[in-house]
Amino acid sequence: MPQTIYVLNGPNLNLLGTREPEIYGHATLADVERLCAETAASLGLTAVCRQSNHEGELIDWIHQARAEQAVGIVLNAGGYTHTSVALHDALVGVQIPTVEVHVSNIFARDSFRHHSFIAKASFASLCGFGIDGYRLAITGLAARLSAGAKA
User: Fold this and answer.
1) Are β-strands 124-127 and 98-102 bridged in parallel, bridged antiparallel, or unpaired?
2) Phi (first) and psi of residue 71, to 5 degrees
3) One of 6, 80, 88, 102 is an active-site residue; which one?
4) Mean of the pLDDT values across residues 4-18?
5) How far is it, in rounded angstroms, from Cα 2 to Cα 70?
6) Residue by residue, what is the 3-state secondary structure of 118-142?
7) pLDDT digit string (tens) for 73-86?
8) I need a surface site. Which of 7, 19, 129, 138 has the fewest CB within 10 A?
9) How far is CA 38 from CA 33, 48, 135, 139, in A?
10) How far apart are the C-alpha atoms of 82 and 43, rounded to whole Å?
11) Known binding-site residue numbers for substrate
């Protein structure tokens, strides 16, 4: 039976494909979810993909990931990356290996985007690869899980 990972997307990611395409590209959230499902399946994992514009709902899903014994989380917290101690605390609390993802290079943008509360609760962070960052995150997560299983 495949192991489950949660792919969680935060505020405004439902607007992918139409919101600032010069920054975020033309791929849609449906494209992201399809990429994640295909990548996870190729690695023997199942991806549960969810998006919310509400911080509390994202926290509830992080807690649900633990309750359902998910083996990993890929999180693009959007703007909450730079503001949410609550998301940080939820990730630390569930102790599930997490990869932070951003479609754009947050360090090449506004200075307020250079700080991440999510990074401190993640074992890896990816930014600037467009939606391919999700594929890279899932691949890296699978490699970490495999390495942990061999240890």
Assistant:
1) parallel
2) -95, -10
3) 102
4) 97
5) 10
6) CHHHCCEEEECCCCHHHHHHHHHHH
7) 999 999 899 889 99
8) 19
9) 9, 12, 9, 11
10) 31
11) 76, 82, 89, 103-104, 113
Q: Choose, from 6, 24, 80, 134, the residue flagged as catalytic.
A: 24
Domains, the chain? 1-147 (3.40.50.9100)
Sequence ranges of the binding site: 76, 82, 89, 103-104, 113
Nearest to 99 by CA among 131, 81, 122: 122
What tokens does 88 get? Answer: 């940080």
Which amino acid is residue 1, in one-letter code? M
Query: pLDDT tens-digit profile of 19-71?
Result: 988 888 899 999 999 999 999 999 999 999 999 999 999 999 999 999 999 99
pLDDT at position 1 is 60
pLDDT at 111 over 80: no
| DSSP-based helix, strand, coil % in the chain, nearest 5 | 50, 20, 30
Who wins on pLDDT, 1 or 81?
Answer: 81
Angle subtended at Cα 74 by Cα 70 and Cα 79, rounded to the nearest 5 degrees: 130
The number of CA neighbours under 13 Å toward the Cβ of 117 is 16
